[in-house]
Structure formats: structure tokens, C-alpha cells
């Protein structure tokens, strides 16, 4: 039997629209996406460097499927903007687009790749490349499109490593129940 760390098979269920747990888990992931950016913004350029708004969207879509990913992807940036003014209006649409790309790419790439860390890396690079192209088209700024790669690479690395650790721990806890 292969270990969870070596495969992309996640034993957590893909949640459906009629399941109450979809909304409960999504609310928990949104809460995480509200708290984590606030912590990161305590550091100088912490939000730009660590890209925290995407973390729990990645975990939600990877652990519970695209529906949890979509709910988290939409609610997190919109609530952060409404409550804290971050992300700013000028970057809100590209951030929502990148978040939705996570929800779309996660189920596909988790099935495609054999190693979970590679699948997570592919998801992060995929949403950044496709989202960057969208951002370039939306803003007309190549610099804005490349921003996450030039300044946000530590955040992209932490997304891959952090999501892998969280998914591994959740899976281990679920196996022990």
C-alpha cells in the first residue's frame, strides 16, 4: 500500500451542493483565508510576498473538491476586500480569477499526478501562469502579471509545502478515527 505522501489520492470526500458539510468546511476555509492575510500583512510586504489569500482555497479544493474550492475562492477575496480593504479594488478581479483557477485545476491535476507535492506544485504554477496571463490582459501591465513570480515566490513555495503538510495531517487524522 502506498502512503498518502507519495500519491495524490486523497481519502477525504468530494462534497456535493446539498451537503451541509460543504458549507461548514467552506466557511472554515474562508475564515482561514480571512485570518492568514491579516497575519501576513503584519510583515512589511507580507501579503505580496506570502500570497496568503490563496492558501486555504488550495487546501479546500484539494481536500474537498471543486465546489469547496469555488465557494472559498469567491468568498475569501470578496470578504477580505469588504472587511479590510485588501485586496485593493484594482487587484480584486485578478485575485478572484486566480482563486477560481485553483478550484478548477486542483481536481484535474490531483488525478493526473502520482506524487501529491508535484500535483500541488502544478496547481500553484498553473494558477499563477494562467492567472498571470489573465492579469496581464485585464490590467495591461506585464509587471503586475509577473509580480507573484518576482516577489511572491516564497508564498508559492509555502502554498505547496503548507498544503501538503495540512493535507497529510488531515488524512492521517482521518485514518486514525
Question: Could you characterize the architecture of this molecule?
Answer:
This protein is an all-alpha fold and 177 residues long. The protein has one domain (16-175): Orthogonal Bundle (Arp2/3 complex 21 kDa subunit ARPC3). Helix content is 76%, strand content 0%. Helix 5 packs antiparallel against helix 6 (116-139) and helix 6 (116-139) packs across helix 8. The chain starts with 19 loop residues before the first helix and ends with a helix. The model is unreliable at 1-8 (pLDDT under 50).
What proportion of the residues is helical, as a percent range?
Answer: over 70%
CATH fold-level name: Arp2/3 complex 21 kDa subunit ARPC3
| Major sheet | none
Low-confidence stretches: 1-8
Radius of gyration: 16 Å
At a glance:
With 177 residues, this protein is mainly α. The protein contains 8 helices and no strands.
Question: What descriptive keywords fit this protein?
Answer:
globular, 0% strand, 177 residues, Arp2/3 complex 21 kDa subunit ARPC3, 8 helices
